[in-house]
Amino acid sequence: MSRKRALIADTFCLMKRRRSAADAVTGDSHEGAADIRSSLQNLMTLFSRKLFNDSLPPVVLKHQLYSLHSDKTSVDKQLNELRASGELLMFQLGFDSEAFALVFAEDYRAKVLQGEAGRETLETVEKFLDKLIPGCSDLSFNKEKMLKEFLFTDSEITQLVKSGVLTVRDAGSWWLSIPNSGKFIKYFIKGRKAVLGMVKKSKYGEILKTELEGRRTTSHVKFQMKYHIHDIVGAELVECIQTTSGTLLRYVDGNIN
Known about the structure:
It is built from ten helices and nine strands. By secondary structure, the protein is of the alpha+beta class. The strands form three sheets. It has a three-stranded antiparallel β-sheet with strand order 1-3-2. The protein has a three-stranded antiparallel β-sheet with strand order 4-6-5. A three-stranded antiparallel β-sheet has the order 7-9-8. The protein is elongated, with a radius of gyration of 19 Å.
């Protein structure tokens, strides 16, 4: 994959991930779903709830887990198990075909119902959540499934889009979505670009991970620095090099304009 593709456009690319990048941060991991669940919970503590007035559930990007576990096949397998059991939901965020958000199902339910309180769409949304959470692992839904399997009417589908739990994918299909997530996506992209810029502007285009973690955030970086570091490492937008002073993050040419 070319390194000359722009970071931000209508979509931006997540480069082909190198196993060594994740290994350099924490080492390999072969534990199962319990370990992945623990990693998710730890990453979610870095999510800035107050930034969104506690209206969003904690969100983690799937590739952030790759900064902690280098066996990506195992990570994906365990995530699929958590999704199949109804514990975890996954969302295609829309700014990149490989950018997937992860949210614990009960957190999602709680925040969606909190936002729906007192609205005319509440009953329809509750019905949708009751069908979705027990173990539906779909990222999108076509009209046939919504009408024949989930037994929603056209009017109810319109209500679900209005509530934000569905967004239009194309004619006759919808993405599962996180209501009010537009601001999250905006802040995430802007923060990623700013943090990559910090790495690029460092001497020789490299900086110790611990030093970057200690940097003060700017107006362009709304999330905790560690949240973005897990992003750029997991997406392999930087190279990770082990040194006697700790992990060094090296800027990769072509990641930002």
